[in-house]
């Protein structure tokens, strides 16, 4: 049987966030500090409403932008990584991995409730925040929501949530 589905997707230049990170991998290794010009894209799927659209593009761009702006120009740090320990002092954030230690000004850091700052988990973090905004502020309940985080040209991870 034929069926129809509608998706709206936003991927704008202002959904770029230039941020620092490093990830742990292979259970005992850690990358050197580096950054990316990440770019987010957000897509939502739902039946058409009375206006014949899935969801207001302007509102979707606004939500996505406010969240990517929070990440922009920050050192992104994981709050629940078993190997990367993050402790916040009065003015500094100290990060340890084995015998390595980094220190950052507190205002330059963003602690994220994720296990690792991979593109996959950043996409899920953004996706869950966007979903909450859509549901609580707009009373909009998409059937599918996906967020793509591109960390360099042609290299991206996608998180997809389905109702
Ligand atoms: Zn990286």
Bound ligands, named by name, code or SMILES: zinc ion
H/E element order:
EEEEEHEEEEEHEE
The stretches of 5 or more residues where confidence is low (pLDDT under 50) are none
Largest sheet: 5 strands, antiparallel
The level 1 CATH classification is Alpha Beta
DSSP helix count?
A: 2
- General form: elongated
SS-based class:
alpha+beta
Number of domains: 1
The percent range for strand residues is 35-45%
Topology:
Layout: E1 7-10, E2 16-21, E3 24-25, E4 29-30, E5 34-45, H1 57-71, E6 75-78, E7 85-88, E8 92-97, E9 100-105, E10 109-112, H2 119-138, E11 144-152, E12 155-162
Parallel strand pairs: 6-10
Antiparallel strand pairs: 1-5, 2-5, 3-4, 5-11, 7-8, 8-9, 11-12
Helix pairs in contact: 1-2
Can you walk me through this structure?
This protein is of the alpha+beta class and 163 residues long. The protein has one domain (7-162): 2-Layer Sandwich (Tetrahydropterin Synthase, Chain A). 21% of the residues lie in helices and 41% in strands. The protein has two helices and twelve strands. It has helices at residues 57-71, 119-138, and strands at 7-10, 16-21, 24-25, 29-30, 34-45, 75-78, 85-88, 92-97, 100-105, 109-112, 144-152, 155-162. The strands form four sheets. Strands 1, 2, 5, 11 and 12 form a five-stranded antiparallel beta sheet that branches. Helix 1 (57-71) packs across helix 2. The chain is elongated and about 60 Å long. The protein starts with 6 loop residues before the first strand and ends with a strand.
């Amino acid at each position: 049987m034929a069926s129809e589905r509608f998706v709206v997707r936003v991927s704008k230049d202002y959904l770029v966030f230039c941020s620092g990170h490093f990830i742990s991998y292979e259970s005992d290794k850690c990358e050197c500090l580096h950054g990316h010009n990440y770019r987010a894209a957000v897509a939502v799927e739902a039946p058409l409403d009375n206006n014949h659209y899935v969801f207001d593009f302007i509102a979707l761009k606004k939500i996505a932008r406010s969240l990517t702006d929070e990440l922009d120009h920050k050192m992104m740090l994981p709050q629940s990584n078993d190997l990367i320990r993050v402790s916040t002092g009065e003015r500094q954030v100290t990060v340890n991995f084995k015998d390595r230690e980094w220190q950052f000004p507190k205002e330059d850091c963003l602690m994220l409730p994720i296990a690792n700052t991979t593109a996959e988990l950043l996409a899920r973090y953004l996706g869950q925040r966007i979903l909450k905004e859509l549901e609580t502020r707009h009373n909009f309940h998409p059937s599918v929501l996906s967020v793509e985080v591109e960390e360099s040209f042609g290299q991206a991870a996608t998180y997809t949530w389905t109702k």
